[in-house]
Amino acid sequence: MTLNYEVIHGLDFTAEEIADCLKREGLLSLELEFSKICNLRCIYCYANAGEALPNELTLSDVKNVIDQAAELGAKKIILLGGGEPLMYEGIQSVVEYIHNKGLKQSVFTNGMLLTKELAHFLFDCGVSVIVKHNSNIPEVQDKLAGVKGAFNKIQQGFEYLIEAGYPHREGQLGIQTVICCQNLKEIHQMWTWARERGIMPYFEIITNQGRAKEHKELKVTNEEIRKVFEELEYIDETRFGHTWSPHPTIASFTCKRHLYSCLVNSQGSIQPCTGIDMPVGNVKQEKLKDILKKSSVIQKLRNIYSNIEGECKTCEFAFDCYGCRGNAYQITGNYLASDPACWLNKKAKKVSPPHANPPHICQ
Questions:
Q1: Which of 65, 98, 184, 267 sits 20 to 30 Å CA-CA off 315?
Q2: Residue 179 CB neighbours (<10 A)
Q3: What secondary structure letter does DSSP report for 298?
Q4: CB 68: neighbour CB atoms within 10 A?
Q5: How far apart are CA 184 and CA 22, in angstroms?
Q6: Taking CA 60 as the corner, what is the angle to CA 59 and CA 61, rounded to the nearest 5 degrees?
Q7: Number of Cβ within a 10 Å radius of residue 345
Q8: CA–CA distance from 150 to each of 82, 147, 336, 352 (Å)?
C-alpha cells in the first residue's frame, strides 16, 4: 500500500494546506470528545476517564459542532471520545453524519466493543481506526489498561477490523502506544510488526496529567526516549525506505495541530489540545468561530514560531517542530515554554545528563 508520508508525518496535512488555513483563520481538523465514560481505567489516561460528567454534549450538540467546523473549512473530524467513543450511544449516527458531509474521520478506540458488524460499518464509512495497543504481553497490557482481560478483548476487536478490510487507503488502521517503562523493550518490535502490515504506529510520550501523575512507575528518562526514537528512525530508514528527524513527542510525526485544529471536550469547552487542558470558551454559549478568533491562547499558538520561548525557539528542528505544548504546559504551567521533556533541551539535559551507557530506570 502506497502512503503519502509528507501528509502522515505532518499529522494529516501538507505545509501548503496549513498555510492557507492560517491565512483564512479557519480549521483543517477538529478533535471531538463525546463523554468521559470508559470501560477501561488506563493508568496513564490524560482525561481520568471512567464515568460520564454532568452536562456533556448531546447528539444535537455534537452535530452542531461538526457543522461549525465544516464551515470553518475542516476536512477531518477526530473522534476521541474523551473516554471510549464506542460507548457513546450516538456513535453510529455521528459517524454517518460526518460521512454524509464528505469529511474524513478517525476514531481512537480501545477496540473492546468492536463487533464484526461495527467493524464493517466503520470500514464502509471510510473511517480510519486507531486502536490502543500498548504491549504484546497480556499482563502488561492489562496492567496499563487497568482492567483484567483487556488484552484478549482488544485483540479480538483488532481481528474484526482486519476481517472487515483494514488497513485500506481510504480507511487506515493504526495502533496507539504510550511509551513507558513497562513496554520500553517491546517498542521496536511492535513498530516493525505494524510497518510490515501497513498499519500506522502512533507511538507517543506520556504527558504528566490525569492518572499518569499518580503512576510514577510509568516514567522514562529523556535519554531513554531519545534512544527509542532514534532506533525507530533507523528501522524506518533502513527497512521501509523513509526518513524523519527524531524529536518528541510522537515518533515519525511532526505535531503542528495548534496551527489548524482545536479540541472540543465532552462538556463543550474549547481547548488547544488534550495536553493544554485550558478552556478558552464553550460551544454551548458561543460560536466556535468567535471563540477561536477572540482567544489570545489560540492566537498565540497559531503564531507559535514567533511566540515560543527558550530553547525551542533556536532549536535545529525549529522549522519543523515546536516541542510538545502539552508537556510544556503540564510541567511548567506555561504553554509557550520550551518542552522540558525534549532531550534536545539543554536545560533538560542539566537535570538528566546523558551518559555513554545511561542507566535504565525501569524496573
A1: 184
A2: 23
A3: H
A4: 18
A5: 38
A6: 90
A7: 21
A8: 18, 6, 37, 35
- For residue 212, what are the CA distances in angstroms to 28, 105, 217, 301? 30, 28, 9, 25
> ∠ CA(23), CA(24), CA(27), 5° rounding?
105
d(CA 186, CA 220): 14
Round to whole Å and give the CA distance between 99 and 91. 12
Residue 130 C-beta-side C-alpha neighbours within 13 Å: 16
CB 248 within 8 A of CB 342: yes
pTM, full prediction: 0.91
CA dist 131 and 129 (Å) reads: 6
Instruction: Determine the Cα–Cα distance for residues 346 and 249; give it in Å rounded to an integer.
Output: 17
Summarised one tens digit per residue, pLDDT across range 231-284 is 999 999 999 998 888 888 899 988 899 999 999 999 999 999 999 999 999 999
The β-bridge relationship of strands 270-271 and 263-264 is antiparallel
Closest listed residue to residue 295, CA positions, set 270, 331, 329, 273? 270
Hey, which bits of the chain come out as E strands? 29-35, 76-82, 104-109, 128-132, 173-179, 200-205, 263-264, 270-271
Find, among 238, 234, 263, the residue nearest to 251 by Cα.
Answer: 234
Answer yes or no: are the C-beta atoms of 191 and 230 closer than 8 Å: no
- Choose the weakest-confidence range: 82-91, 238-247, 266-275, 329-338: 238-247
State the cell numbers at 79: 473522534
